[in-house]
Amino acid sequence: MIAPWYLRFAADVFQRPAFFPVSSRAFALGAAAPLLLAAANALAQLPVAIEQPPKPELAMKMVYGGSSWRDARVAAFFGGRSPTLRAEVREVFRARYVEQDVDKLMLVYQLTPGPREQFRCPACVPALGAAVLAADAQGRWRLRAKGPLLMAGAPGSGDEDLQLLQLDEQRWILRSRRHDQDRGRESRSERLVLERDGELQLGAELGFDDKPGPQACGAGAAPQTSGVSVLSPGRGPRVEIVLRFNEGDCPAPRPVVQRTRMELRDGHFQLEPDAPEPDDDAPPAKR
């Protein structure tokens, strides 16, 4: 590749014979200084090549030290088992995104007290952990934040319902939707996980438990669902969680729709404050 003209000129200046008059060399250096600065700026603006994201085995080593993890939190989650219990770690989700001009990678893991294939009963509930890797200034992936054990996973170690949600132009969160069913009675929940101070934290969790659905009551029961919507920022990043469930007994339980709006404040999702009451003494709004 042919070097830019200002780089060739600068190189020529420094390669001239040493017997040039000092004044001539000083003049040449003075003329070259702006060009050298322009060259340095041009090089600084070149995009950094980012490495390929690490493969699951290497990523697990960065987060858990390997494909298994021993910790008191694991033993407590799985019913106070032996503190020597080593949970098997399995990657179940990864998604790449850009946040505040930094390339990041969200990773989610299922943890089971032994091989995942042997933890498939309806009452077998795995744990979920997560981590965020970020590309550094040299384009290398580094561990940015982690929550090695955050919440319960899908019953029977099944497929997880996970996705990234963009809160605003510079912020993303992980959304986890959980669904469980027992003889037609359903439990659903929406969980929102966010990054804060080098950790991944459960920022919100809303749901319902043991409500009669169509499989319990037949056509007399409405379908039960849950959902999350990102709202326009307003005072700050906001979300709305909508729960649709049934109250009462079969054959015709009453359908209920519960809408909860929350905004992100101080690193946590909190109930959105009610709109202020109108001031009776205030002048009427202009139309």
Describe the structure.
- By secondary structure, this protein is α+β, with helices and mostly antiparallel strands.
- It folds into three domains: 39 residues, no CATH class; 112 residues; 114 residues, no CATH class.
- The protein is 18% helix and 45% strand.
- The protein has five helices and 13 strands.
- A hairpin with a 2-residue loop joins strand 2 and strand 3.
- Helix 1 packs antiparallel against helix 2.
Which helices and strands, and how do they pair?
Elements: H1 5-14, H2 22-44, H3 56-64, E1 68-70, H4 72-77, E2 86-99, E3 102-112, E4 127-135, E5 141-152, E6 161-168, E7 171-182, E8 185-196, E9 199-212, H5 214-217, E10 225-231, E11 238-247, E12 254-265, E13 268-271
Antiparallel strand pairs: 1-2, 2-3, 3-4, 4-5, 6-7, 7-8, 8-9, 10-11, 11-12, 12-13
Kindly list the characteristics that best describe this protein.
five-stranded antiparallel sheet, alpha+beta, four-stranded antiparallel sheet, about 290 residues, 3 domains
Summarize the structure.
The chain has 287 residues and is of the alpha+beta class. It contains 5 helices and 13 strands. The protein has a 5-stranded antiparallel beta sheet. Strands 6-7-8-9 form a 4-stranded antiparallel beta sheet. The chain has a 4-stranded antiparallel beta sheet with strand order 10-11-12-13, with no helix packed on it.
